[in-house]
Amino acid sequence: MDSRSLSSTVPSLSMNERIVWISDNGPEYGYVRWLGKLPDIGDDWMVGVEFDNPVGTGTGFYRDQQLFESQMNHASLVPIIGLMKAADFEDSSPTSSGSQHNILTYPAPKTLRSLMGKSRGIQGHNNSCYLDATLFAMFSSATVFESLLYRPSTAKDIPEYSQVQNILREEIVRPLRKDFFVSANQVMQLRTLLEKLSSVEGLTDEEKDPEEFLTLLLNQILRAEPYLKLSSGLESFFYQLIVDKDENIVLPTVQDLFDQSCLGNSIRLREIPPCLLLQMPRFGRQYKMYSRIVPSMQLDITDILESSPRACGQINKNCDNLASFECKDCFGERGNRFNTRLSNITYCKSCFQSKHFSRSHSTGIEDHDNTKSIIKHGCTNREAQQRFLASSSSSKNKTIPRVYMDLFAILCIETSHYVCFVKCDNDPDAPWCFFDSMADRKGEQNGYNIPEVSLFEDLPFWLSDKGIAYLLNNRDDKLLPEMSRRLICDAYMCFYQSSDLQLYR
């Protein structure tokens, strides 16, 4: 993989050249530290970049070989098409239609208003809302799915791989980001080809579910690497929340349901996923386990990671020891809402004995037999303790760094119609928008649908203490504004991404 042994084709960049990558948060500058082709990726040139800021998550390694040296978390491998020379970028407009390099990046924040209004987004046609909403959630703002647009074909791919990828990139993502509009005819190209290549019937005219489309596109057609890798050895692109309904929980959050589902089904993650697609606990288009679910803007996955040490969760005792036990019977004990977190049911040996054996027998807590040792989790107890101690320079402030994933899109369904909410960029305070591919219609049988993207300014309120209090005190869904009702009552799938892994894996 030495760049000197490559073909004589000269790339547009050279070693140590100053470059820029246009991220959701604006331009990120860096230097070319490696140029080459990777046998298991294809014939396209890849660039090893050392960014000025901590953009990537690597250190210049690819598999077991160090391609170049870089500061920790400043390195990334990027397809050459995704970069510009810094001088070219500074001499041109970031939104110039003549630049082939930045045309697949999301517009700068000052142009976000251009995305709003009628005839914006993806135009719906012939029951396409499941596909329209999913594609808008994946590509209108987020970059975590960007590799799907660039990975070169291999011998293992179907013959039509490049054709599907080209339609997805050139007919859907490009006009969505450049012109803020994708016509139904362009989407129909993708639907027609997918139907031709799969055993799934009715992709061009029948109602489908997002998970059907995602499984077909990601697994069968594009053969992407699964995002979710479980300790059981199973791999998947999304995770269905499976829980027993708790009548004591009136207004669950996604974090509540995620923790309950992972605990009840003994789910652990082998690694931090670049994105996590969570299906809400509902079955079919009608049945919902909970009539309302509050989205969690950040999802804490620390206690789900297989190899991560865990802290004793007895914060009220100011305990800063490493946890040795987890007690499932303490989860949601007596309907205590504050015990619906995995972080609250872990104990060091001392706290475990104090809680379970120092009370009167009438509490019944001695009967908690659903307890297991958690000191290993992929490492020895000594290794876990060393990581725990190394997480802080002060022995009085030993904390295990929490690992969070950020919410960036929510697919919703009302009866059989899908819509979505999408965060407009990666800034924590970025606005959210609401997208409906069939918001309006012109004409009847021979007419056409008019998509619409609307600014949704109320999301911070519904996630605040005042918003939660309102929801708890007002149980009639008809009192909620339409978009807010869809957010709280109709969530179908939540899209989370790791801010550290959203560029390239």
Automatic annotation (TrEMBL):
InterPro entries associated with the record: CAP-Gly_dom_sf (IPR036859), CAP-Gly_domain (IPR000938), Papain-like_cys_pep_sf (IPR038765), Peptidase_C19_UCH (IPR001394), USP (IPR028889)
Keyword entries, A-Z: Cytoplasm, Hydrolase, Metal-binding, Phosphoprotein, Protease, Thiol protease, Ubl conjugation pathway, Zinc
Domain USP residues, every copy: 120-499
Transmembrane intervals: none
EC number(s) per entry: 3.4.19.12
GO molecular function terms attached to this record: hydrolase activity
Subcellular location: Cytoplasm, Cytoskeleton, Microtubule organizing center, Centrosome; Cytoplasm, Perinuclear region
Catalysed reactions, as listed in the record: Thiol-dependent hydrolysis of ester, thioester, amide, peptide and isopeptide bonds formed by the C-terminal Gly of ubiquitin (a 76-residue protein attached to proteins as an intracellular targeting signal)
Isomerase listed as a keyword: no
Main location: cytoplasm
Catalytic class of the enzyme: hydrolase
Metal-binding found in the keyword field: yes
Record family assignment: Belongs to the peptidase C19 family.
Name of the protein described by the UniProt record: ubiquitinyl hydrolase 1
Protein's organism: Fragariocoptes setiger
Biological classification of the source: Eukaryota, Metazoa, Ecdysozoa, Arthropoda, Chelicerata
